[in-house]
């Protein structure tokens, strides 16, 4: 089997949609990036009150990082054969390239952590997850989803078990495995890989994924809100990524809070299942709206798709700007300026230079492994 050769870094210069590229996936990735920016600097509300539109910004808690992780799995699937992953020796070269990519992402993440911004950097965990899924690249979607389900069930248990290891840990240490628990986020990446293996190109698959993702998320949130409604003060007292129960709770109530809380970024079973469902629905909706819809849809999608085509550059860039500012910015206005700046930069770079600068570096490194012939 002959593997498709990757396009050179400048191949997308002036091109709305590169051949074979799913623009909807890029749009979804842009939504994840802009959502994470909102969580970092947007001054968003702590909790959603659907009767108060002023609190709706709180949906950016937890869900953008989940979407980003599910999209990592989708990207891995798209670059390793889509619905038909190749066998040896091609898959070995793909694994080697993905491993180089993982190391590069971890390195960038560590450099961003060294900037000292008060932001939890996801990239080291993100890169580590690339390595963890290498052995399962050829698995069928059903088995990927089975293992993802096991990870979801284990998520709160493992997240609580590692807490003692972080006693006295500082900002640097908690970013490595506590705020973004590996087992929890492995579930997301496996779901994304399964989505890519199922296929995102066909309309029937897009509708099925959109429907199933929305139903799973709705069912999980209903179960969580009935069995373990989020208590007052949870957002201010709980630590991101760690299950939490109020001090005055005990027995079944405490256990329900730890395992089934619908609180965002709680690593509970409900949180993992619900946010994964939301992510799948968003990805499916974006591909349904923009892929295969003609040049008009491509033009409409281009601003966000440009951002999503260079996620490493945009993510690193916004943290670098934060580090250079004299004071930490936090308001809806600041987020709007960051979002506008990201879109304009990505559009201009994509139109005139093609692939993003950091994406070019990573691509050059991965080409150290020769392509299959």
How would you explain this protein's 3D organization?
The chain is an all-alpha fold. 62% of the residues lie in helices and 0% in strands. The radius of gyration is 20 Å and the shape is globular. The protein starts with 22 loop residues before the first helix and ends in a 7-residue tail after the last helix.
Précis, in short:
With 373 residues, the chain is mainly α. The protein is 62% helix and 0% strand. The N terminus is likely disordered.
Order of helical and strand elements: HHHHHHHHHHHHHHH
The rounded Rg comes to 20 Å
Helix content: 55-70%
Please give the number of β-strands: 0
Instruction: Output the number of helix runs.
Output: 15
Helix- and strand-based class? Answer: mainly alpha
Instruction: List low-pLDDT spans.
Output: 1-6
**What fraction of residues sit in β-strands?**
under 5%
Summed over residues and divided by their number, the pLDDT gives a mean of 91
**Amino-to-carboxy terminus distance:** 8 Å
Report on the biggest sheet.
none
Structural shape? globular
